[in-house]
């Protein structure tokens, strides 16, 4: 009986460690997602400002090598 309890305690310890590692991974991923969302917002703003100025690529003269 004592051996079974020890085995269960060992498993529990490993599961707690695994849970902590996975939790840290999720936290880091959330930080990365927030950073990427911030970049996307900046890019959307830049695109909107370019579109509002009316300088669309089709309105621009072709580069000199054409």
Description:
The protein is an all-alpha fold. The chain has one domain. It contains one helix and no strands. The mean pLDDT is 90.
Quick take:
This protein has 66 residues and is mainly alpha-helical. It contains 1 helix and no strands.
Features:
mainly alpha; 66 residues
* Count of discrete domains: 1
Helicity, in percent?
over 70%
Integer average pLDDT: 90
Compute the separation of the termini in Å. 85 Å
Helix-and-strand structural type: mainly alpha
| Element-by-element helix/strand order | H
Report the count of strand segments. Answer: 0
CA radius of gyration: 27 Å
Question: What is the element layout, followed by pairings?
Answer:
Blueprint: H1 2-53
């Amino acid at each position: 009986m004592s051996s079974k309890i020890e085995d269960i305690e060992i498993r529990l310890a490993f599961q707690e460690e695994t849970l902590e590692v996975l939790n840290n991974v999720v936290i880091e991923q959330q930080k990365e997602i927030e950073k990427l969302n911030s970049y996307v917002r900046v890019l959307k703003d830049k695109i909107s400002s370019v579109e509002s100025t009316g300088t669309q690529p089709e309105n621009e003269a072709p580069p000199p090598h054409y």
